[in-house]
Amino acid sequence: MKTTKNQKISDEMRKIELFSAADESVISSFARRININTYRDRQSLFFNGDSCDTLYIILSGGISLYFISEEGNEVIFSELQPGDAVGEIEFALNYRHSSNAVICGATRLLEIDRKTFNELSTIPQVSSYLMRTIARKLHRTMMFAEGMALYPLETRLARLLLDLGAAHGRSTSDGILIEKPISQSRMAQLINASRPRINAQLQAWKSERLIGMRQHRIIIFNERSLQIISRHSDPAA
Fold it and tell me: Which domains does the chain have, with CATH numbers?
């Protein structure tokens, strides 16, 4: 049974970027010291201020990182997907978690404790992986901060719809159907806005035939107009 468990973990390790270039001996050596756990939708993974003793890598499902605003609202600043690492910056610096994390859908995580990580970090491809994943995380955070600081709601919302279209869209005769359902409350969390303002902007765009609804899913009729709004709206003071 133990051999079977280690083999399954080895198989999962080979699929992720961290171990993609690792020798078979490295994978076999660390497989017995790495865990894979499953989490349920909306389960909290950690909170701001918690100690960071585990590096997580998403195998399937997703995780949202969020802050709590002064008004008590959740503001999502990053949605992580399979292949992404979670908590790698705090883990590498031995800091406490600086945000909250919640599971999105049934999710499987590969988990590495600090002692195992310290040994892994001596392997060149592991150090290279950490540099790349931290750089990607920094870029996402800078883009989020730029949007929050400089651009009005319509620009942030246009960018969100275009991102959703790129990630979850399907071309139809009418436009791009975003096959992933997303509520207005969720949109509000993602771009730090109120739900009523999200609703008002979506209704305005529906009236202008930029977007529409099909079976509770958004369809983008006029991608070009949304691109113009996302790129050329004047920064807000």
Answer: 2-149 (2.60.120.10), 151-232 (1.10.10.10)
